[in-house]
Protein 1
Amino acid sequence: MSEHVIAWLGAYHDGELGRRQVRQVEAHLEGCEVCRAALEGLRQLSALLLESPATSDLSPPEHFIAQVGLRLPRRPERPAWYRALEMAWRLTPLGLLAAWAIAQAVLVVSGATLIALQMGLGGEAAAWLLPVLTPVSAEVDLFSLSGSGLNDMRRIAGGLLSYGGPLGWGAVLNLLSLVVIGLLYWSWLASWWVRHRRQQL
Amino acid sequence: MVNSRSWPSEETELELITQAQRGDRRAFGELIRRHREGVVNVVYRMCGDAHLAEDAAQEAFIRAWRHLPKFRPRSPFRNWLYRIATNVALDVLRRERPTIGLDELSLASSAKGPQERVEEEERGEQVRRAVLALAPGSRTVLVLREYEGLSYREIAETLEIPIGTVMSRLNYARKCLRESLAFYLEAI
C-alpha cells in the first residue's frame, strides 16, 4: 500500500477495523514512518487523557441513592397507551360481569315474555308478537294439537322448548355468550393470580 | 460450593430493570449502585465540576426512573443511562458555566515526591481543560470512547447518530487535543 493510512489510524487504534483492514494497516505501518508516528501520537494522547483523574469527590453510594430516592416520583411514568391498557385490564371483570348480567337479563326477560305470550297473558299483543318471537311456533302447536286438559302445562313446556331447544337460535347464542363470558372471566382471574404471584416474588 | 456473591448481585440486570419498571425502588437503588460511578464520571468529564456532576448524575437517574417503562433491553442499560447522562450534562452546561478551580483537583495520596505530584496534577488539570474546551458534540464522543470505553457502534446507539459521525467527531476531537496538548505530548 503506497498511500498513508492516517484516516484509518483512529479506528485501528480503537480496535474498530475488520481483520482485512487491520492486516492492510499493519502491512503499511511496517514501511511507513509517518503513519507509525501518527499512531504513536494517538496512543500517547489516550495515555495522557487518562492522566486527568476521574472525580474523587463522590459521596458514599448509600447517601447518593438516598438523595435520588428523595427526589423520585412514586412510580416511573408510564406512557399514555400503557395507562389506558392497564385501566382496561382492571375494568375487564366489571365489563364481563356487566355483559353477563345483560345476557342473563335478556335470557330471562325474553323467556318470560315468550312463555307469557304463549299462555295468552299478552292479550292482543300476543297475536302480533308471537310470530315474531317464535318464528317456528309450529312446533309448539304440535303440543297444543293434542288438546288435553293439561293445556297450560304444555304451553309452558312448548314455550321452553321453543326458547331453549334447537328452535330458538337466539337462546343458543345467548347461552353460548354466557359460556364465553364465564371462560373469559376465569381466564382473567387466572392471569391476575399469576401476575399477583410474580409481583410477590 | 460456597457462593460468595451477595443476594442483590445474583439478580441479573434485566430482572432488576423489570422490577424497577413495575415501581420497585429497591431494584432501582441497586441499579443506581451499579452505574453511579460511570454516570457521575461521564457527567464530570462533560462539565468539569465534581459537585455539579453529582447533582447532574442524580438528575440523570431521576430522568431514567421516569422514562424507565420506555426502556427496551435491545441495547445495554448502561448505554441508555449514558445517553440520559450526556443530555443532562449538556443541559447543565447550557444553564450554567462552571468556573473550574484548582481546588477541585484530586489531592489523592501518591508515592511520588511533592514536585512530581504537582506536575502530574497540573498535567491532569490541563487535560481536563482541553477536553472541556472541545465542542459538546465532539467532547461527548471522546468521553464515551476514551474514558468509558464504548465501541463506535455503542456510541452511535447511545447518541443516536451515525457511526460515520462518531468517527469524524472523534477524529476532530483528537486533532484538537493533539494541538492543545502538544506541549505535554512532546514531553512524553
Protein 2
Amino acid sequence: MTSLAFDYRRPDSVDQALALLAEADPGTKVLAGGHSLLPIMKTRLAQPGRLIDIGHLGELRGVHRLGDGGLSIGALTTYSRLLANPAITVYGLLADVLPTIGDVQVRNRGTIGGAVAHVDPAADLPACLLALDAEVVVRSARGGRTIALTSFFEGAFNSVLLPDELITEIRLPAASGDYGSAYRAQEQPASGYALAGAAVVIGRSTGGGGRFDRAAIGITGVGECPYRASAVEQEFLSSGDPAAAAHATDGVLVASDIHADREYRTALIRVQVRRALEAAIERVG
Amino acid sequence: MAIDALGASIKRREDPRFITGAGNYIDDIKLPSMVHMAILRSPYAHANIRSVDVTAARAMPGVIDVIVGADVPYNPLPMVWPAGGSAGLRNNVNSPRILATDSVKWTGEGVAAVVAETPAQAFDALAAIVVDYEPLPAVVDAEKAVAPGAPQLHENAPNNVVFEWSVGDSAGTEAAIEAAEVVVRQRLVNQRLIPNPMETRGDIGWYNPGTEEYTLWMSSQTPHIQRLLVGIFTMGIPEHKLRCIAPDVGGAFGTKIFCYADYALVLLASKRIGGRPVKWIEGRRENYQSTIHGRDHITYLEIAGKRDGEITGLRVKTLANLGGRLSTIGPGIPTTLYARVLSGCYKIPNVYAEVTGVYTNTTFVDAYRGAGRPEATYVIERAMDLFAREIGMDRAEIRRRNFIAPDAFPYDNPSGLGTASGGAKIYIDSGNYEPALDKALAMVGYDDLDARKVEARLRGKYLGLGLSTYLEVCGVAPSKWIGAVGEGWGAAMWESSNIRVHLTGKVVLTMGTSPQGQGHETTYSQVISHELGVPVDDVIVQHSDTQGTPFGYGSYGSRTSSVGSTAAIKAAGKIREKARRYAAHMLEAAPEDIEIDGANYSVRGSPDKVKTLQEIAFALDLAFDAPVGMEPYLDETAYYDPTNCTWPFGTHIAIVEIDEETGHVDLVRYVAVDDVGNKINPMIVDGQLHGGIAQGVGQALWEGAVYDDQGQLLSGSLLDYALPRAAWLPSFELDETVTPSPVNPIGVKGVGEAGAIASTAAVSNAVVDALGPLGVRHLDMPYTPQTVWRAIQTAKGGQA
C-alpha cells in the first residue's frame, strides 16, 4: 500500500526542527532513519499529518568523548557508524549486539536516537542501553534536559518525551574497573525482534576478584517496554549466583502473543538472563 | 565438436536480467494512459452485506470508477476439479464471486474496487466506501466446522461439507487392521501454510474499443488456461478475443496456477472506463488473504502390521480445510493428488482413505509446491516411524522391509492413480529405493547415531535424526488419466512446442509452458542445442504469451522438463526430418542416405558432401531452389501427451539438536539423495532441491498461518509469518542415484517439488526422534521453540 498524504518539512538545523515541533501539531512525527515509521505509514497503521525530516542534520550525527570519560552519541548516528567507531570497543555489549541488529540495510539507516524514541517493546538496542546506564539528552524550544534511560520508557511505543522535544544525543557513562557483559536473546523468527532478550553488564569497581558490586540487566521482548531487572540485579549482587535470573519478571506483566505465551516467555527470559550472567562472569574472569 | 549442452551445469541465462533489475515483472509494465485499481476487502471473516455505499468514494480526487458486486455481470469463478472428477460424486460447490454480493466468507474477500489515476488515490478512496455488514459467527478449524452447532457457511453445504470422498478397499483394510499383530493410531495436523512467492500477484487489463479485443497481463503460471477460464468460463469472451501474457514471474509455488477474481475485474474495469488499461498490484498483506493458502489437513491414521515389520494395512481419515469458497482445483488436491499416493514407496496390500473437504471462514486452499504429495509423504513417513517405534525396529530397516522391490515395476498400487478414473490406469513405472537409502545412511554416518546423541546430551541438547524415504508423482499428466471423468479435472494435460530455424540458422523455440523463475530459457536451450547440434546461444526460448505460442497447459506439478521438453524434442525431430529431405535435394542424394551428426547433414560414405543446418535453413528460406511440393522454411510444431507420470524418489535425512531449556530446534545437518532421473542442468536441479528443501523445512520449523476464533489472520504479514532464512540452514549435502524415467526420451523426471515433498517429514521425524527419550512419540508442526519447550515440560512432568 501507500501512505496517506502528509505535510513534509525538512528543517535546515536543530533549532528549526525545534521551532517546528513547538507548533505542537498533534499529528506530527519526527522522521530519522525511517525504518520503523515508514513501514507502519505504508500500511496506514500510522497516519501522521506532518513529518519533520531530520535525517540529514549533521549536527546530530557523530560520536565524541565527554570530559568525564563518558561517550556522547549523536541521535542520528546509525548503527553502522556507531559500530565503526573505535570508542565503542570499551562497551563490549554494543560491539556484540550492533552487528546482529536487523540486516545491513537496517544498520545503515537505523539510528540510535530513533531506536530510543520508538520504544519498540522487543528491540535489542534499548535493553543494551539500559544495561549501560545510558542517558537521553533532549532539547526543545523551551530548553533541554537529560533523562536517565531507566526513567525514559513508559510503555509500548511510549516514552516521557514531550511532543515538542527532540532526542539529540545518547550518553554512556565511562567504563571503569573490571567489567563483563553479554547479550542473550531468542529471536522471533519472522520479525527478528527478541522474543526474550537479556543484556547484562556486571563488574567490580575495585578489580581483583572480589564480589561484584555492579550489575545492570536490561530486558527486552518481555514486558510492554524494555526494563531493568532490578530484582535480579539485587539478588545477584548479594549472591553472585546466576540463579538470580529466576527473578527476571518480578513485578512485570509478561507479554503473550502467537509466538510465545506468558508462561513460555517467562521461562525463556529466565534462561536468557542466566546464560547472559554466566557468559558475563566468564568474561570478567 | 562442441561439448554437448545436455547435462551441463551452464549458468542460467535469465539471471543477469533478474538480479540486475532488468527483468520485466508485472509492476514494471507501464502503458500509456494506464490507471490503477485497488480492492476493498472484507474485515470480517463471516458477515452478510446489507449495503455498500460508494457515493463518497466516487467523489474522491482522481477516482474514475467504483465497482461493487451488483455491477459485475459475470459468473462466479470456475471450479474445475471436483473431488472424484465429474463422475457424479456430490460436491457442494461454492466458488468465489468476482466481488462479493450478499455475504463474505473470509477476511480479505473482495467487496468493491476503485479505479483511480494513481494507486494512492485508489487506496484513499477505498477508505470512503461504506459497507454495512451484519457480522456472523465464524469457524476456522475444519474439525470444529463439521461439528454440530457450527456456524454454517453455505446453504448448499450442510455441516460445511464440500464432499465426502474415499479411495481403496474399505473392507480389506478393515480386515487387515482387525487381524494385525500391531496397530498404531495417531492424529496428525498438517498446518496451513502461506506460500509467499517473492513477487505477489498482479495484473493489467486492457479492452481495445477499436477491435473489441481484450489483453490481460498477469503474473501467472497458466496464461493459456486462464484465457479459457477468465475468458469463456467467466466473462463470456471467446479465446480469439482475449490475449493473456505472463511477463517475468517472480516465483509462484502453485499460487499463480489459478483463476482469480482480479483478472476479470481489471478487464471489466478497462471496458467500463472506455479502454484505458487498468493495473492492479497485490500488496503483501493482501496476498496473505486473497491468494491461495496450502495444506491444512487434520488426519487420523491407523497403520497395521506384523511384529517383524511387515506393514499390512493403512487407513487414513483426513479433513481437508478448503477455505470459505473453492479455488480453481481445490478439491482435487487432497483427493487425487494426496490420498492416491498415501502408501508412498511401500508395498502395502490394504490401503483405504476417506477425505472430507470442509468449508471454513478462511482464505481458500489449493495447490502449493508439492500439492497433496507433501501431505501424503508426511502421513506415511510419520506412520513408518510410529510403527517402527511401537515394535522396536530400526527406522531404516522397516523402510527397507516394505519397499516396493526393484523387480516389481511397473507396480500397480491398489489405491493408486487411475484406479477409479474410467480412463488410463497409472502405474509406478520405475524405481530402485534401497540404493538411495543406503547412500544417504552412509553419508550421514547412521551407525554412529547413538554416540552422537550421548555427546549432545553432555551439551544440554537432544539430538535427533529423521528419515524421509519419499516417492513423488510428477510430470503431470497423461490426458487419458487426468481428463477422465471419474478422477481428473476433465481436461487434457499435453504440451506443445514450435521450432523455427531462421535464415541465419538461429533457432526460436516457442513453448506452451510458462516459467516462474525455474530457468526454462536455459534448460530448453540445452535440450534443443543437443537435438539440433547448434550452440546453446543460438537458441532463444519464447513462452507465456497466448499470442504467438501454441496452446499449453503451463508449468506446475514438476511437468515442464518431462512433458514440455518432450514436445520440444518431437518438434526438433520434425525439423531434422525436413532438413534431411532438403539436404538430400541439395546434395543430390536419397533422404535415407543422409546421415545427421549434430548440425551436419552428409551423404553416407561421402563425409565431404555435407550441408549444415544453417545452410539448409538459409536455402529453405530463400526457397528458389526448393523442389516441387516442399514448403519453404524450417518451421515445425509438435504436441506431446505423456503416457505416464514420472516417479522421482529418494532418501532425505535431517539431524536436529534441541536446546532442552529453550526448546529451540537447530537443523544441524541435511543429507539428500534424490533420484530425479537424468538431468538437463545439474546446477539448476541442485537449486530446485535447495529451495524445495528449505521450503519444506520451513513448514516443519517455522511456518504456519494462525487465525483467531473470529477468523482474523493473526500471522498477517512477514512480521509474524516466519519464512526460512539461509543463515538458519546448514549446507545441504546432496547426492543422487539415477534411474532414468522410461516415459520420455531423455529420461528426466522433474524436480520442482521433490525437496519440499521430502524435507518436512525428515525434519519432523528428527524432532520426534530427539524427544523420544522423554517419551514423546508425536508432536504437531511447526516446531516453534514454545511448542517444543512445552512438549519437553509435559514429558518431564513439569509445570506446563
